[in-house]
Design goal:
single chain, alpha+beta, two-stranded antiparallel ribbon, 1 helix, 2 strands, globular, binds zinc ion
């Protein structure tokens, strides 16, 4: 029996070498595929962004 559910288990990570748009830190993996247009943030900066700019849906 195999449960084909995206929510369970490991999230796919994209490996590579990118630079954080904010602090310049090296990013080696991302939870999404970068399209080259939007800025990339390292974990710390990403967390700061979420805290400083809460989104409402
Ligand atoms: Zn950063």
């Amino acid at each position: 029996m195999y449960n084909n559910n995206n929510q369970a288990g490991d999230r796919q990570m994209y490996k590579g070498t990118w630079t954080c748009s904010q602090c310049g830190a090296e990013i080696t993996e991302l939870p999404f595929e970068p399209d080259g247009n939007r800025p990339l943030y390292c974990r710390d900066c990403h967390r700061q962004q979420r805290q400083s700019r809460p989104r409402r849906f």
